[in-house]
């Protein structure tokens, strides 16, 4: 009997909360475990009423308990934590980071801010695919979509319908293809809503993302910045001065000017520009030639002006664009696509120790 009880505990210890990504046993979510006459009765406590992960947790508890030899029937009773229990949980999760900006200078998390001089150069598409590529390597990855005026990361990662779950003071971010994502788009009533905030409000929002979103330990944090040199770029520079900046540009030589400017703003806030990524480079044709739709040289030009390496040149790609529209990142759906391959190589390059 004692053996069976410890077998049950061991099995239940494998059940992970899909949002918090920790064993539910460690989160105080297993309330009671009883066993009599082949029947296991498990009481679980969810964090909030209507917890989106409820069905999955209940199913996983049922499966885990049912897998123990000797258990013929499983009953799962679901309740909700009291306010005091929930507060204790959020305090435990937040730990020392309570109300402070996570990922301070002491953080082991590597932070990359992806910026560009102007809009539409593919910055968000690259950020989303990079995140997925890094997560597919087994790293713990989070993305803060700080592109408040042109938020597109949730759509690119297939989580545009999802909202963060609020547990006390914490927000649990939705997870798309293994990447924890928070975006201003998740707080607006609908996709057609425009954001027209001034600097202080933008600063508060970014700060809130960095303090109240429960990312847990991350290996990599990516920030998708709005194009240009505006308030958000400066706020991120102040809040995360140790972030490493990657500048995205097109091959158009005229684009190098504005790309250089966004890199220079990052430097002014103390951030380090680690390189340039050229996107929308030549489109390979069926006859083997390459159509240089946006010209050539913009990436190398911007890199030379900023005195940093050109980290990648990503070709124009139908599969990349389609994957963005359907929310299926091309690095997973078509890793052999030349643009996907270039992003996968970029992910590998970013993992090399910072110099
Ligand atoms: N290499 C590429 N080949 C083909 N299409 C691309 C490529 N990169 C990006 N795109 C497409 O270009 C459009 C703009 O991309 P994206 O939204 O990522 O740009 P952005 O720089 O983040 O823009 P903004 O900052 O204005 O939101 C999207 O439709 C995207 O699918």
What does this structure look like?
The chain is α/β, with parallel strands linked by helices. It folds into two domains: 2-81, 2-Layer Sandwich (GMP Synthetase, Chain A, domain 3); 110-351, Rossmann fold (3-Layer(aba) Sandwich), CATH 3.40.50. Helix content is 36%, strand content 22%. It has twelve helices and 15 strands. It has helices at residues 2-12, 54-66, 83-94, 123-136, 153-156, 199-212, 231-239, 253-268, 298-306, 318-326, 330-333, 338-351, and strands at 30-36, 39-46, 73-80, 110-116, 141-145, 165-167, 170-172, 175-176, 179-183, 220-224, 244-249, 272-281, 283-284, 290-291, 310-315. Strands 8-9-5-10-4-11-12-15 form an eight-stranded mixed beta sheet, sandwiched between helices. Helix 4 crosses helix 12 (338-351), helix 6 packs parallel to helix 7 (231-239) and helix 8 (253-268) runs parallel beside helix 9 (298-306). The longest helix is centred in the C-terminal third of the chain and has 16 residues, at 253-268. The chain is elongated, with a radius of gyration of 23 Å. The mean pLDDT is 87. Bound molecules: adenosine-5'-triphosphate.
**Beta-strand content estimate:** 15-25%
Identify the strand order in the major beta sheet.
8-9-5-10-4-11-12-15
Give me the count of strands: 15
How many distinct domains?
2
* CATH homologous group name of the largest domain: P-loop containing nucleotide triphosphate hydrolases
What's the level 1 CATH class of the largest domain? Alpha Beta
Mean pLDDT: 87
Low-confidence stretches: none
Distance between the termini: 58 Å
Q: What composes the largest sheet?
A: 8 strands, mixed
Helix residue percentage:
25-40%
Going by helix content, strand content and strand pairing, the class is: alpha/beta
Write out the distinct hetero groups bound to the structure. Answer: adenosine-5'-triphosphate
Domain MIP18 family-like: 9-76
Keywords: ATP-binding, Hydrolase, Iron, Iron-sulfur, Metal-binding, Nucleotide-binding
Protein name: Iron-sulfur cluster carrier protein
Subunit structure: Homodimer.
């Amino acid at each position: 009997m004692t053996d069976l009880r410890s077998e049950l505990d061991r099995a239940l210890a494998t059940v992970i909360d899909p949002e918090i990504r920790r064993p539910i046993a460690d989160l105080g979510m297993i309330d009671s475990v009883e066993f009599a006459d082949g029947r296991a009765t498990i009481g679980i406590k969810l964090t909030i009423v209507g917890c989106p992960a409820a069905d999955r947790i209940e199913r996983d508890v049922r499966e885990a308990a049912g897998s123990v030899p000797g258990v013929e029937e499983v009953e799962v009773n679901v309740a909700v934590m009291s306010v005091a229990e929930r507060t204790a949980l959020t305090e435990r999760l937040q730990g020392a980071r309570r109300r402070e900006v996570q990922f301070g200078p002491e953080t082991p998390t590597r932070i990359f801010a992806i910026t560009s001089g102007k809009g539409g150069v593919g910055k968000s598409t690259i950020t989303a695919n990079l995140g997925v590529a890094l997560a597919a390597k087994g790293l713990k990855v989070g993305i803060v979509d700080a592109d408040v005026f042109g938020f597109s990361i949730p759509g690119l990662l297939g989580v545009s319908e999802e909202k963060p779950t609020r547990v006390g003071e914490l927000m649990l971010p939705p997870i798309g293809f293994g990447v924890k994502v928070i975006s201003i788009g998740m707080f607006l009533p609908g996709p057609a809503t425009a954001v027209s905030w001034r600097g202080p409000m933008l600063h508060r929002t970014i700060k809130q993302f960095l303090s109240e979103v429960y990312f847990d330990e991350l290996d990599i944090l990516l920030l998708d910045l709005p194009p240009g040199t505006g308030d958000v770029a400066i706020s991120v520079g102040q809040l995360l001065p140790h972030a490493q900046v990657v500048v995205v540009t097109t091959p158009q030589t005229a684009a190098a000017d504005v790309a250089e400017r966004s890199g220079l703003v990052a430097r002014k806030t103390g951030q380090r520009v680690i390189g340039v990524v050229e996107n929308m480079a030549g489109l390979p044709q069926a006859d083997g030639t390459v159509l240089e739709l946006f010209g050539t040289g913009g990436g190398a030009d911007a890199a030379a002006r900023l005195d940093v390496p050109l980290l990648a040149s990503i070709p124009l790609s139908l599969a990349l664009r389609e994957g963005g529209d359907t929310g299926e990142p091309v690095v997973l759906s078509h890793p052999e696509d030349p643009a996907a391959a270039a992003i996968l190589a970029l992910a590998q390059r970013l993992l090399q120790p910072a110099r």
